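Repro:
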Amino acid sequence: MTFSSTSKLAGRAAIFACAFFLFHESSQAQDPEFSQFYATPVYINPAMAGTGQCNGGGRAVINYRNQWPSLPGTFVTTAFSFDQHFDKIKGGLGLLAVQDIAGEGLLTTSSVSAVYSYQLEVTRKFWMRFGLEGQVMQRGLDFSKLRFEDQIDATRGFVKPTSEPIVDEKITTPNFSTGFLAYTENFYAGIAVHNMIEPVQSFYGDPAAKLPRRYTIHTGSVISLDKRNNPKATFSPNALFMMQAKFTQLNVGFYLNRGPLVSGLWFRQTFGEFKNSDALMILVGFRKDKFKFGYSFDLTVDSKRAAAPGSHEVSAAIEWCARRPSKKYRVLHCPDF
């Protein structure tokens, strides 16, 4: 390796390291997100725990998202959830596990949550749910993968020890979220507030480096396309608005269900300081009995398209019916994905 190429690598490494530590020491982090937001029901809103489609039975969901895979060291997010309705507690219980990996393992964020939602029958045709989520979150930093300018030897590369201070490589904090959901047979709307206590996320112990609250508003309807009111042929327009610190976005689109096939199209727009037309989200999927599978692709439409043309996302879910059909349970007619 020549001195010139070593210097260039040093500069890039130093810039990356400085940007990384500045971001995590003085600014605020952001939660991962999924384009298939209704394929992550417990993640989008704690009030959706226990809203499976089969008489209050159980539901298990797994989600995988690879954001901008054309770039090295970007974001890979995996989520798993289980939820079910129980008449004895007048609502639903859920478990949620999420892992987000950035920088090829440089920064890892993991969390495990327990969720409860309470179902309230306002009238025979109008219901509400109130959800509460308790979470344990851990962020881990692999300090050995960082490279600093003072490690560089002009002829041998990164071989010297660094004088940079070693930070705490793991941070574990509690977290809480809440949500509200209102729905009829054909319409639904919900509000969720995540990171209610805004836990500190700094590896340096900086109390100002908090994970900001995430506010979500989502709504939509399910319209039958079959004159015989066949629920397997439906059109479902929906929208999701999300705000977290300086990041604000709106997703608008629809699902189209026809027999076992599911398709969808959305447009994502961001506002405020980071305003831009972000992406088109295209979904295809299928249903077989109580099994569902979906694949979506985020087609980047803004100026970063040349470097990051898109993102991939996969979801799979299985549901099962309750042994004894619940007389108190009221199904939420929400999109299948």
